Amino acid sequence: MVEVRIPSTMVLNDYHLYNIEIVVSPERQVHKLSKRFSDFVEFKKELEASLHRTIPYSLPSKYSSLYKSKESTIEQRRVGLCEFLQGLLNDESLRNDTHVLEFLYLGENTFTASEAADGLQTGWADESKSIKTLLQTVRSKLFARDTNLVDCKRIMDTCGAKLDKLERFQDEDGLGAGEKRRRQNVVGQQRKEYEELCVLVRSMINANGLSSPAKPAFKRSLGKAKETQETKPLDNQQLYQHQQVLMTQQDESLDQLRGILQRQKQIGLTINEELSVQNELLRGLDDQIDISQRKMNSAKTRIGKIL
């Protein structure tokens, strides 16, 4: 977990600088630097250009200074820049990017130790997710038409071993009390589900034996597949080639659809950004109207007293 703070600002040559503090776990070393707001704007453009996509972290509006006081604008930008960096530096897909490291004057191995420390928790979470998947697999197999009870039993044995391992590591050193309780609740719920499925598997084995796979209760006859006029004159090789052509055409259609959706997404993002700017301008205008209305009411009151 990377912590970002911007506790203060300062003025240098008529420019406002934002004093940034970056705290990287587990050493908790504080890295300090100062940046102008325009530096962030330029950095975001360069980063998105290098990635060929829009990052999901936004900067404060450049237009707030048009209708807000200088102090309010600086405070809004201070909070917004802190949130921007907090999201960026806790995004594992972005924080090791060369542009990010150079912009913040960080070394290439800055986040290596932090990622290693987070790996323990990630490994536990992955194991828990694996158990959940196995339990879902067994449940779906049990209610399938061609139930393979031997396969279900083998999966349950694997799931039991994983649960035992998960229980041993749910109280790792360095975990907070809240995280320990969360892990205990997750393991307890998965253990309960595991035991219920074990009872169900055993009862089905006792009722049907260990035949693999069990005979289905019924067999559906689909009849002979009908050929179309297009495929009837084709031999096996020609039919295979025909199928390949159809699949290629489908792939091309999907690629075209994906391109259309990507363009629509980009248009939507652009519209959203423009609407955000317009909304801020409208809010500023609304504030000015309220101020003007109060002044007008005050003037009417004074005129009434004079008359």
UniProtKB/TrEMBL annotation:
Protein's GO biological process: vacuolar transport; vacuole fusion; vesicle-mediated transport
Keyword match Coiled coil: yes
Keywords assigned: Coiled coil, Vacuole
Domain annotation PX: ranges: 1-111
GO molecular function, one term: phosphatidylinositol binding
Membrane-spanning parts: none
Name of a matching Pfam family: PX
Domain T-SNARE coiled-coil homology: 244-306
Keyword Coiled coil: yes
Location in or out of the cell: Vacuole
A single cellular component GO annotation: fungal-type vacuole membrane
PANTHER family xrefs: SORTING NEXIN, SORTING NEXIN-13
Role according to the record: Essential for proper morphogenesis of the vacuole. May exist as structural reinforcement on the surface of the vacuolar membrane and be required for maintenance against rupture by osmotic pressure.
Protein name: Uncharacterized protein
Source species of the chain: Ogataea philodendri
Phylogenetic lineage: Eukaryota, Fungi, Dikarya, Ascomycota, Saccharomycotina
